[in-house]
Design brief:
4 helices; 153 residues; 0% strand; mainly alpha; flat
């Protein structure tokens, strides 16, 4: 009986580890169209669009990170310089607006590649992201977070 219990527990651990490993080995999601079925031809067109889009938004995101670090330093300066803080805040707002514009243009470009049924699926994916508070980040992941295609990322 003891041996049976030990073998059973060992099998459960192996199954658990195998299922976690399989989950990690899934193809990463680089964009919202990865969450719906598209043809190979559409995938190539999407990759062409992403080849331009991803580097542009990566640069904007890097500038946002840098400006936020600078804002942090300004906020904790003693005494704080309100004029500099307000200026840095405006810089961040401009970058956020630029990023939003890029994402909107990107969604519209990708949407044009889709059939009516795919557009409905794409709509649902984007709607889910908006309901969560915004659009996720293509190709980026914060430390300590996971992405799950079943949860709309």
């Amino acid at each position: 009986m003891k041996d049976f219990l030990l073998i059973f527990l060992l099998l459960m651990v192996i199954i658990l580890l195998a299922s976690r490993f399989i989950g990690v080995r899934r193809k990463p999601i680089r964009g919202y169209l990865d969450l719906i079925n598209i043809s190979e031809g559409q995938k190539q067109q999407v990759e062409d669009i992403r080849r331009d889009f991803l580097p542009r938004v990566a640069g904007i995101r890097q500038a946002l990170r840098q400006n936020r670090l600078e804002l942090n330093d300004l906020l904790f300066a003693d005494p704080p310089d309100m004029r500099a803080i307000e200026g840095k805040s405006r810089d961040i707002s401009k970058l956020q607006t630029q990023l939003e514009r890029e994402v909107i243009d990107h969604i519209l470009q990708e949407k044009e590649l889709l059939s009516p049924e795919q557009k409905r699926q794409f709509y649902d994916v984007i709607r889910t992201e908006f309901e969560k508070g915004g659009l996720g980040v293509h190709g980026e992941q914060r430390p300590g977070t996971t992405r799950n295609a079943g949860e709309g990322r």
